[in-house]
Amino acid sequence: MKSVTVMAFLLFFTINLNAQKNQSELAKLKSASPDVVAVHDVELLPGQDAKAFETFVLNEIKPIYDKMKGQSFSLFKGDRGNRTNLYAFILSFNSIEDRDRIYTPSGEMVGDFGDKAVWEKLKTMAKVFYSHTDYVKVKK
Hints:
signal; alpha+beta; Alpha-Beta Plaits; 5 strands; Antibiotic biosynthesis monooxygenase
């Protein structure tokens, strides 16, 4: 009888521990969800190698954005729909205030955007920053 009670306690403890862990993971996901995203359409220029472009962006461009507190950078490639095989730079911001601090409403960019040569090389590879939209999360 004692062993059944101990086993029941251990089972209850394990289930409760897993439930707490799952709640903690869910809370992390909810808090990591950005309030603002900026989607910048990007198109490779004719004759450019997609893999070389992806490597360049992930190794040279992404770190510039990611070092600025309050934003993170992701490179996406269209998988289906109107922009299949085309790219997008997606900037995620924790808040509208973070977005407005880095990219002021007046259009001035605040922060260290790295070496001009990196941006010049990017322009030789792709058509960038010609079209973008900032999306703000709709809340209840």
